[in-house]
Amino acid sequence: MKVLGVSGSPTKNSNTDVLVKAVLDATGAETEFVKLSEINVGPCIACMKCVHTNVCVVHDDFRWLSEKVMEADGIVIGSPTYYGAASAFMKAFIERLYSKRHLKLLLSKKVAVTLAVGVASEQMVAQWMGDALKAGGMEVVGTMTAKGTPCCFVCGPGESCAFTIWNVYSKELTGMDFGVEEAYEGYLELLPDNKPYVNGSARFLKSYRSVKDEPDVMAEAKKLGELIKERI
Question: Which residues pair with residue 204 across a beta bridge?
């Protein structure tokens, strides 16, 4: 029994990496972890040369990675959320899996788990990844999300920037309450003079949010790994 874990996060030892590995560990299977930012997998170029062979002709690292996908009984994919979507690394990987769909639906006997880490739109990203894998014929046994570290926490001028992620997702701009301030209680304090896209004013109470410090999140990852174990 083999399970492949694929992370779309470019950040070293990221929360996404941690969760993908936690799911892998809980499967009790032979596992392998691949970090897409450390290899070269470009987007689909729509050449349609894979239609009859189910083999992508683009010469990059997807060639050997696709072999690992085919050898695996299960796959765990995880991505951070960038601009409300999966990372470009993960998007390219999923696009390239299209080569396995044509005529034969070669991934149809595999099980999968998707997970996304973000600030406000991670649920949509995890769902999108799951839907993409289902379209490829996989059985998605579960999805999960977690809150990560906003890039504005570590960029430098985040406390005084009017265009931070929490202001992007503010009720003033979107008309919706994404609950960012509540979700980051203990990590972020918005000050009274903060005005989205006018004046940035916040205080960082913690500079990094780690899923390792959140037992419920780690337990959920373990449960997903156990679900994979039950299904394969």
Answer: 188
Residue with tokens 């991670």: 122
| Residue 129, token pair as written in the block | 């990844």
As a 3-state breakdown, the chain gives helix, strand, coil percent values, each rounded to 5, of 40, 20, 40
Query: Which domains are assigned to the chain?
Result: 2-148+209-231 (3.40.50.360), 149-208 (no CATH)
How far is Cα 2 from Cα 152, in angstroms, rounded to an integer? 38
Q: pTM (2 decimals)?
A: 0.96
| Residue (of 77, 94, 97) closest to 144 by Cα position | 77
Q: Which residues, other chains included, contact 38 with Cβ-Cβ below 8 Å and sequence gap of 6+?
A: none
Please name the residue that has the structure tokens 């941690």.
18
- Residue 75: enclosing H or E segment and its boundaries? strand 74-82
Q: Give percent of the chain with pLDDT exceeding 90.
A: 99
Average pLDDT over residues 75-91: 97
* Look-up of token digits 């979700």: 183
Q: Which two tokens stand for residue 76?
A: 């765990």
CB crowding 133-146: b at 16 or more within 10 Å, else e: beebebebbbbbbb
Q: Rounded to an integer, what distance in angstroms lies between the CA atom of residue 80 and that of residue 84?
A: 9
* Distance (Å, whole) CA 200 – CA 68: 46
